[in-house]
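ok trying again, last paste got cut off:
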Amino acid sequence: MQSLENHFLIAMPSMQDPFFKRAVTYICEHNQDGAMGLVINQPINITVGELLDKIEIDNDKTQQAAGRAVFAGGPVKTDRGFVLHSPKPGYTASQKLSSDIMITTSKDVLATLTTAQAPEQFIITLGYAGWDQGQLEQELLENAWLIIKADPEIIFNTPVEKRWEKAVSMLGFDVSQLSSEAGHA
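nice, full thing came through this time. structure:
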């Protein structure tokens, strides 16, 4: 089995699950036990500053970061927050996922997000997408997802409403020509 860590799962146009319709999911972990990822293009009605207030972390509302949207990272454990961020020296609580992306659940990192110590780029998600052993592989066989190597540009710099289209465009073909039928020879 080839690991899909540091890849995007792009929902096929035929995906009808309301949570994953037109979703772009960044895969953080994928091994023989299953997979875990964060949806990066489903904003929810809460800002970073409001979230930090709810968890009683002081923050500077005058900073642009305080007004950023928080994302629904997936339907599992929606009360748990994750921060995907650009590398930052000294963030020992963060795990390196690639040369351009780190992940953390640390309150210490959350406390820096509206300060000069914040990572250059970040997004916060609540919840995650999880797949049991073999479940993601089965969904791939059923043609539910397209796969492409993750691009930090899409996570951190592409407007949220354009992330699905930009990820699809990296595949190099017109997604409207795709069929939801899986081909098996």
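cool. The helical segments are 48-54, 107-110, 135-141, 152-157, 163-169. The beta strands are 7-11, 24-31, 34-39, 43-47, 69-72, 76-85, 95-96, 102-104, 122-132, 145-149.
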